[in-house]
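Entry for the shared binder. Reason: the reviewer on the internal report wants the predicted structure included alongside the sequence.
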Amino acid sequence: MVSDSPADGRNPGMPLDLDWVRSVQANLSAIERRAATIPGRRSVKKEWQAAWYLRAITCMDLTTLAGDDTDGRVRRLCAKARFPVRGDILAALGAQELGITTAAICVYHHFIETARRALEGSKVQVCAVSTGFPAGLSPFPQKLAEIKASVAAGAQEIDIVITRSHVLTGQWERLYDEVRAYREACGEAHLKTILATGELATLRNVQRASFVCMMAGADFIKTSTGKEPVNATLPVGLVMTRAIRAYQERTGYKIGLKPAGGIRKAKEVLPWLSMMRDELGVEWTGGDLFRFGASSLLGDIERQLEHHVTGRYSAAFRHPLA
């Protein structure tokens, strides 16, 4: 049962407020100017930079969503999620007692059981993509069945894709009803709604879709599937964070953000963490309310941590991911 108390932390949603949705405006030039200042607002160096990199690891949904995935690959990814940084590096950083893991493993439904068994006894969550990922154009009853099957198989988080045409044609009631049904199908599993922002045409549409998904009960709003030509960008992230803030101010509920797609280098995580801290507060720099959808990112972060410890850049193969 979902609590109705903001103190409980889970967003139950609210009735669709079309006046609020239709009143949304997005000043493109102002958003882009603000986003352009984010990378240079803070210079994080040395041990502080290493600490932020470790924090970023705890915010990762370590992901494999390839057509050639195998049980072996998923098991190796789960092992990396449980122990994402080599022990000697953690020891040199004095962080071996922190119990650092990634936040979750994200896989297709077919590999939920494999991931669940490989992660047994750890705090790493099992996340499954659903609802006809990545296009989201499967028949609606099939989408609901996918969610229910993944939850029954042991997924603790569900990443769904919205029907982009609902946004592009302004069918907000249909989008709300769709996401509301997904939320009900998830039950206790947390719902992350993928907006596929690179396919929504405008930042105004991104903000409107964010509001509708949160009203429908989403626990997280997520930028992208990682399969679009344009994925997570700072202007899109800024619009979504401000939608989250407005929703919290109105309802008292805290919604998470998950940028995904295109974030591959360690240096790219710092502006995102800085933006979350500035726009929403320190609480949104932890895995409960912020996630990176990532695959190759972890390897580069581990490489940067080794450079911090030794003063030398190592070859990428020293930090295998899967």
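Summary line for the report: The CA atoms of residues 87 and 259 lie 28 Å apart.
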